[in-house]
Q: What sequence folds into this?
């Protein structure tokens, strides 16, 4: 690692024509470290030329391996004494060796000749096709796909026969409230929008779409994602396809014109705040959706074996009755997250602030859902009520805006 860092320091000083930064370690100036080498700007706020010197693909690899919080960050862990060398995973060590190799051949004097080697050609092809794995946007994309997979598996959760289910007045009233009251009231405010679809979840999705495109963007800016909203359908392949189509720049996405990192932290962009909330929502929903699967499978087995007490049986029936409403809410959130990513580059300040406020409501829902569906808590009535309410507040986003 020290040799690799020094090699990158040499590349950095050549790219930026600052030889005085090669061997600096004094009271007034520290060694040039990866924090500085991989920053968008130099200390004097001029642009770092390393990106032009090594190319985007190589820079993405370096940022992934050394900088992003979700990545290995081997250099940070070693320098802070957080890593026992003998316990470094083999795959991490292998990645470091390969990273050293590809940087080395990139800057050997006879690079054109080396590049013609078949082995090196294959390596360069892999590097040129590499996309970030650990940038916050990449992590969010992975979480979205994971959530789509889990929700797609909900169709395999065992359900009670209609003859076994007793009508639950509380859940029935929620469904009635959802279809007859709340959306009818909202439709008076947005009659031109609310009549587009008969299904309440589709209506909410349509309202959110129109909110995102309210600045005059073409409808073609958003892919057709409505199949995600079909209850208990397998949406994982559609989500994967759309995520693969999504091309968002990750290099220096949130950096300012100052090298001062404390200043950058205090001046986080709207997008950073928005993505931070989105990531927390997805983490909570991944945990909740797995938990709901486990609880329903356990309760079904207990139901079948007649191991549930009277109160537990009633709770389980409420689970079954409210299951679809929760599924609808989670699929709507999945849809919202995907649409958001496709419009991320086009969000203005005003719209971003509205989305941050809206996402905080979803975050609260996601955190409550995790608590309410815990097997030791079983507040399924509240979970259903709040799932219905989430769909309601989505239809009101244009009103807030």
A:
């Amino acid at each position: 690692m020290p040799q690799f860092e020094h090699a990158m320091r040499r590349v950095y000083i050549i790219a930026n024509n600052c030889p005085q930064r090669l061997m600096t370690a004094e009271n007034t100036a520290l060694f040039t470290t990866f924090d500085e080498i991989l920053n968008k700007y130099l200390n004097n706020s001029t642009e770092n030329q390393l990106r032009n010197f090594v190319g985007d693909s190589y820079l993405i690899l370096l940022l992934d391996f050394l900088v992003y919080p979700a990545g290995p960050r081997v250099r940070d862990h070693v320098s802070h004494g957080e890593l026992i060398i003998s316990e470094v995973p083999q795959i991490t060590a292998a990645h470091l060796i390969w990273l050293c190799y590809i940087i080395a051949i990139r800057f050997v004097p006879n690079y054109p000749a080396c590049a013609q080697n078949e082995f090196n050609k294959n390596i360069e092809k892999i590097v040129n096709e590499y996309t970030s794995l650990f940038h916050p946007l990449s992590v969010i994309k992975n979480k979205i796909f994971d959530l789509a997979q889990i929700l797609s598996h909900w169709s395999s959760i065992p359900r009670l026969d209609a003859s076994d289910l007793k009508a639950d007045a509380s859940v029935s009233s929620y469904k009635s409230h959802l279809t007859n009251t709340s959306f009818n009231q909202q439709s008076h405010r947005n009659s031109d929008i609310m009549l587009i679809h008969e299904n309440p979840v589709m209506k909410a999705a349509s309202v959110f779409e129109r909110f995102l495109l309210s600045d005059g963007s073409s409808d073609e800016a958003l892919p057709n994602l409505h199949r995600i909203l079909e209850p208990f359908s397998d949406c994982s392949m559609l989500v994967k396809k759309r995520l693969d189509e999504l091309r968002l720049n990750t290099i220096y996405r949130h950096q300012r014109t100052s090298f001062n990192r404390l200043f950058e932290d205090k001046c986080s962009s709207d997008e950073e705040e928005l993505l931070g909330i989105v990531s927390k929502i997805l983490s909570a929903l991944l945990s909740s959706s797995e938990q709901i699967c486990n609880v329903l499978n356990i309760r079904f087995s207990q139901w079948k074996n007649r191991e549930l007490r009277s109160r537990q049986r009633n709770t389980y029936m409420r689970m079954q009755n409210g299951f679809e409403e929760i599924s609808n809410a989670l699929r709507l959130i999945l849809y919202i997250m995907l649409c958001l990513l496709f419009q991320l580059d086009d969000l203005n300040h005003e719209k971003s602030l509205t989305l941050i406020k809206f996402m905080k409501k979803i975050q609260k829902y996601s955190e409550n859902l995790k608590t309410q569906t815990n097997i030791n808590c079983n507040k399924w009535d509240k979970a259903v009520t709040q799932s219905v309410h989430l769909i309601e507040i989505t239809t009101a986003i244009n009103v807030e805006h």
Notes: The CA atoms of residues 6 and 22 lie 8 Å apart.
